[in-house]
Amino acid sequence: MALARNNHRDDGGILIAEDSPTQAEQLRHALAQRFKQVTVAANGREALQAAHRHKPALVISDVVMPEMNGYELCRAIKSDDNLRDVPVVLVTTLSDPKDVLEGLACGADNFIRKPYSEKYLLSRINHVLANRELRKSERMDMGVEIVLGGQRHYVNSERQQILDLLIGTYEEAIRLNEDLKERERALAHSNRSLAGMFSIAEELNKAATERAVGEGALKRALELPGVRAGWISLVEDGDFRMLATCNLPPALEVPGAFDGLCNCRRKLLSGELDSVTNILECDRLQKAKGDTQGLLYHASVPIWGGGQSIGVVNLVGSERGLFNDDDLKNLFTVGNQLGVALARARLHGNLERLVQERTTALAAEMAERNRAEVEVRKLNTVLEQRVIERTAQLEAANKELESFSYSVSHDLRSPLRAIDGYTRMIEEDHAARVDDEGRRMLGVVRESTAYMARLIDDLLAFSRLGRKPIATAPFDMTALAREVAEELAAGYPSAKIEIAELPPALGDRTLLKQVWANLIGNALKYSAKRESPRVEIGGRPNGQENEYWVRDNGVGFDMRYADKLFGVFQRLHRQEEFPGTGVGLAIVHRVVTRHGGRVSAEGGVNEGARFSFVLPVKGGHA
């Protein structure tokens, strides 16, 4: 209703009693466009003083104020003979029915509920001023008894004032009811939107592939208010790939319907679709030929991944503005969740691919390993056969060697005995006819004969080692080394022999005694010419092996010739200086290797030597 300023006495203007500067300024600004004079007071007391100074046409007062509230101000105005005809409109929240009773009791003409619109404010003021003259001509006090909350209230007021106040209260109740219904509709819409968005998020959490992410999100998006169809496009190398569609109208089912750019895709590529979902009029549906089922509008939801937009979700309906601002913000969050779900699906896909590749590689590796194992088994079979053949050959060779050794020893011993016999006969029967030089030469012949006999004996002993079986048994290696050292020490009274505690051995005691005899005997022989000859015998356990060694401070040897030490008849020193046949270390090597062990040597010229051998703890005999 338009306010006819000329029909009412508004010479006194409007008096506003409001303690809030912001609300007071809003009221003043709204009323200044309609009234010549608008006065503002900060509380009820100042407003009453202003009314006494200049009688207003109407008073608008807040209820809650310091230094005289709105009810007290109204009561003071209505009790003043000069001011009682001034209409008083109270601004309140009407949070309790007692507000109405209090307003009636104090003589208020009308209520305005907070919050209010400018249009409603002016309509209330217009109504109050329009009835001002009528109420003057029909002034009649009357009493009204009201039962409220189980208590009786008696109110004295003018009949028209009571009617105006109750009508105003009724209008406020209707408006409150309409606001409540609107809020219920908005709440129902919000609840449905939130339920749909929660359903989308729930579906995204279950999806494991890109397609499942897209199809699941669109399926659940149809639960949102007004959404009837949808599609998802992803950006790839500056172009778009359709990830999923749902419930499309026939017009968009035709081939090529989604080719090329559209408004939402252009906005996405240009960066305009960067924060909040935009409501767009779909140009594809506008240009589509065929049945669009009345669909025209859509909400475009950007999909974010890695800090950039990677695609767009279009949710389509037939109404402009499918979602309110809160819905749009929630949908933007859904777009972020969709980007996370797509990244997770891609990662899952990559992991699946890597697992498949690894599985394929492992299968190929297993096949290659199986093939290799077959080849190894074949090779082992061949090697075993060759070992059997080689063993047979060695056994035959050993037999031949032994037979040859016996034959050679027999053939060599006969002339050696003859030489030795004739030499003795000359020395004994013809001593007078032989001079000193002759006797020396006869001595050389006899020594050579004896040396040759020892060579034959060592050769026979070496040949027997290849066939002699190994009698395996545990025994005290320390006691064996001491026994051998004591037997040999008598020939080297100046030598000092030190024997440490040795780990026990498992093998043939007789054969291993030959090993100690050769190693200790060599150590004594090659260190005997030293001023203080010394021989150290030691050993230690080493995992599945036991190591033993003999160290001396003798003449040593050149490591360049170390590989010759364990060969038959191999010598690094002159016979005249250190007598020997050159078979001892070869016997050591053969005995140790037949026990499954190994031998080694190290030393230096005039720096002594260290000979060691290793035997397995559990034996390993051949």
Task: Report on the architecture of this protein.
- There is one protein chain.
- This protein has three domains: 5-182, Response regulator (Rossmann fold, 3-Layer(aba) Sandwich); 207-323, Beta-Lactamase, CATH 3.30.450; 469-616, Histidine kinase-like ATPase, C-terminal domain (Heat Shock Protein 90).
- The longest helix is centred in the middle third of the chain and has 105 residues, at 325-429.
- The chain has a five-stranded parallel sheet, with helices on both faces. A five-stranded antiparallel sheet has the order 9-8-12-11-10, sandwiched between helices.
- The protein is elongated, with a radius of gyration of 61 Å.
- 50% of the residues lie in helices and 19% in strands.
- Mean pLDDT is 78; it is low at 1-10.
- By secondary structure, the chain is an alpha/beta fold.
- The protein has helices spanning 21-32, 44-53, 70-78, 98-106, 118-130, 132-137, 159-206, 210-221, 263-270, 283-287, 325-429, 436-465, 477-489, 509-527, 584-594, and strands spanning 14-17, 38-41, 58-62, 88-92, 110-113, 141-148, 151-158, 229-236, 239-246, 278-281, 297-305, 308-317, 473-475, 496-499, 505-507, 534-542, 545-552, 598-603, 609-616.
- The chain has 15 helices and 19 strands.
Helix-strand layout with pairing:
Blueprint: E1 14-17, H1 21-32, E2 38-41, H2 44-53, E3 58-62, H3 70-78, E4 88-92, H4 98-106, E5 110-113, H5 118-130, H6 132-137, E6 141-148, E7 151-158, H7 159-206, H8 210-221, E8 229-236, E9 239-246, H9 263-270, E10 278-281, H10 283-287, E11 297-305, E12 308-317, H11 325-429, H12 436-465, E13 473-475, H13 477-489, E14 496-499, E15 505-507, H14 509-527, E16 534-542, E17 545-552, H15 584-594, E18 598-603, E19 609-616
Parallel strand pairs: 1-2, 1-3, 3-4, 4-5, 14-16
Antiparallel strand pairs: 6-7, 8-9, 8-12, 10-11, 11-12, 13-15, 16-17, 17-19, 18-19
Helix pairs in contact: 2-3, 3-4, 7-8, 7-11, 8-11, 11-12, 13-14, 14-15
